[in-house]
Amino acid sequence: MEFQLFLPQMRMTLPTMVERVQVAVDAGFDGVALMDHLAPPMAETQPMWDAAVAATWLGAKTTGTVGHLVLCDAFRHPAVLARQAVSLDHATGGRFELGIGWGSVPTEFPTFGVGSTEPRARVGRLTETLEVLQALWSGEQVSYDGDHHSLIDAQQVPAPEHRIPIVIGGAGPRTLGLVARFADWWNLPINKLDQFEQLREKTGDARPSLQERVTFVPEGGDRDTIVETAMRRFSDTGHAVGNAAELVEHYAAREAAGIERTYVWTSDFAAPDTLAEFGETVIGALT
């Protein structure tokens, strides 16, 4: 199983994020995934950094893969996104992964005036975006006439230096069709975990991943206090709690069920000591 750190780019400085990602990679994490919002969900007054800029900064300052769970399609024209992705691919030596979806917080759309909140329109736009991305990444001249996007003799060079992995999350029928058609990774919503086997049949060759919030109880830690703090910060939906031995068992079961990557969202906001001990005692026991 691969381990990625999910690190929302909020409530901390960019240098602090660099430090935490460096600790995570040194501890055995394969890389980092950021979020993509115009304001932090349920924390709108908190400071937050732009998703693409933060990924660029981390890509320059750390090793390991850099990506997002996930970029919201409506926030960027596909020609802009295509150029950003290729630039990150070249800058990082192939360490950028493109996570993309049609938006998990519809209230952002009218607040910032970025597009339709209607699901059919949003997934239709995402379909066209993925088609445009692949066409522009060929480096050839492209014309495209869709309901949401159009290009006339458009061309972008350079082409990607490496294949840019695409991560798509979701479980709806049309989203799963996009996963099967375009994705290298399928991120399964944790509230659909009980349907994993049935849904997986519709995802083609995409490898399955899962994002999960984790409360790690370090050796000698006060379990009750740690869990109480975590529950005060978050709800218990999709929440794994345990010491090293318990989490090794937890992730071994996930791997046995077919999950090939997990995005770890620590409830203490990726404290360096937590990342280091988690890497040594959990990741180290499973890899």
Q: Which structural class should the secondary elements be placed in?
A: alpha/beta
Strand content: 15-25%
| Termini gap | 7 Å
Helix content: 40-55%
Q: Shape from CA axes?
A: globular
What would CATH call the architecture of the domain at 70-199? Alpha-Beta Barrel
CATH structural class of the domain at 70-199: Alpha Beta
Q: Give the ordered list of helices and strands.
A: EHEHEEHEHHEEEHEHEHEHEH
Strand runs, count: 12
Radius of gyration: 19 Å
Task: Report the CATH topology name of the domain at 70-199.
Answer: TIM Barrel
Main attributes?
TIM Barrel, 287 residues, 41% helix, ten-stranded parallel sheet, two-stranded antiparallel ribbon
Fold blueprint:
Layout: E1 2-6, H1 14-27, E2 31-34, H2 51-61, E3 65-68, E4 71-72, H3 78-92, E5 98-101, H4 108-112, H5 119-137, E6 142-145, E7 150-154, E8 166-169, H6 173-182, E9 185-188, H7 196-200, E10 207-216, H8 223-233, E11 239-242, H9 244-257, E12 261-266, H10 272-286
Parallel strand pairs: 1-2, 1-12, 2-3, 4-5, 5-8, 8-9, 9-10, 10-11, 10-12
Antiparallel strand pairs: 6-7
Helix pairs in contact: 1-2, 1-10, 2-3, 3-5, 9-10
What does this structure look like?
With 287 residues, this protein is of the alpha/beta class. It has a domain at 70-199: TIM Barrel (Alpha-Beta Barrel), CATH 3.20.20.30. The chain has helices spanning 14-27, 51-61, 78-92, 108-112, 119-137, 173-182, 196-200, 223-233, 244-257, 272-286, and strands spanning 2-6, 31-34, 65-68, 71-72, 98-101, 142-145, 150-154, 166-169, 185-188, 207-216, 239-242, 261-266. Strands 1, 2, 3, 4, 5, 8, 9, 10, 11 and 12 form a ten-stranded parallel sheet that branches. Helix 1 links the parallel strand 1 (2-6) and strand 2. Helix 1 (14-27) packs across helix 2 (51-61), helix 1 runs parallel beside helix 10 (272-286) and helix 9 crosses helix 10. The longest helix is centred in the middle third of the chain and has 19 residues, at 119-137. It is globular and about 65 Å long. The N and C termini lie close together (7 Å). The mean pLDDT is 96.
